[in-house]
Amino acid sequence: MSSLRLLCLLLSSVSCALALTPEDAGARLRMARQIARERNDEKLVRGVEKLARDFKSSLPANAEEQLSEAEKAVGIDPGGWSMAGQPLFHPTPEMEAALKASGPKLIAAMASGDAAAVREITLAMEGVLDDQAGVPDGRRMGQKAGELKLSRAEAVKLFLDALETQGRAMRTLMKGELLPDQMARVYAYVLDACVTMHPHVAQHAPQRLADVEKLLRGTAGVLLKLQQPQGHFPFPDLRGKKHSFWRHDGKTAPKRLHPN
């Protein structure tokens, strides 16, 4: 067999292996529709839904091309499983079945308060997901900020003005008190900003330095309250609502997570 013929056969095999299947097309269309709806773009949603109807009976010869165009229109990278190069969650049917079976076990373990059992089940679920573990099931395109050139003095003024727009929250943090329904990382952002801007405030707005230092110390105090004995912080709760693993003293906001 000539090397050219062998190469053609290999390329043909790869092409067949990568051929778009109805299942793959359906999954990619569901993701495209989800992102289109998040953008609140009725025209994009209708376009994706029409494509799904067109693909329902059978996939046309140029299905991959049509699907890639739809993905690009909603902001997904062609191929359907990344956005601006960042991966999107796309479990296989086998993964979904295994996760569904693990759900009741995890609920029971969490209800029992058995940290070891929770850890064992979550590790097993992570093994099922493999490289899909921790990947979000959707992303938002966001907007690219335009370049804004500021002097250091102007940057300091912008920082201080931004703090003033959140007056009540900043005063709460200055007292070292928790904000309602906020993740631990919010306090880290504030603390990082205060530490970064501290020398510049000292130089360009020294009359406001005491306020920044008070905010810095108060926010650091909040983080110390949240930090666990092992050194880590509470696991993410994206909406700040699920407090079933927090301990309460009956008088103040929740302070600690059950060890997990």
Instruction: Report the C-alpha radius of gyration, rounded.
Output: 26 Å
Roughly how much helix do the residues carry, as a percent range?
55-70%
The H-and-E topology, N to C, reads as HHHHEEHHHHHHEE
Order of strands, main sheet, comes to 1-2
Largest sheet: 2 strands, antiparallel
Span between termini: 61 Å
How many strands appear in the DSSP assignment?
Answer: 4
Strand content: under 5%
Overall body shape: flat
Provide the residue-averaged pLDDT: 81
Q: Tell me the structural class.
A: mainly alpha
In DSSP terms (H or I, runs of 4 or more residues), the helix count works out at 10
Low-confidence stretches: 6-17, 242-260
Characterise this structure.
β3 and β4 (256-257) form a beta hairpin. It contains ten helices and four strands; from the N terminus they run ααααββααααααββ. Helices cover 60% and strands 3% of the residues. Strands 1-2 form a two-stranded antiparallel sheet. Strands 3-4 form a two-stranded antiparallel ribbon. With 260 residues, the chain is mainly alpha-helical.
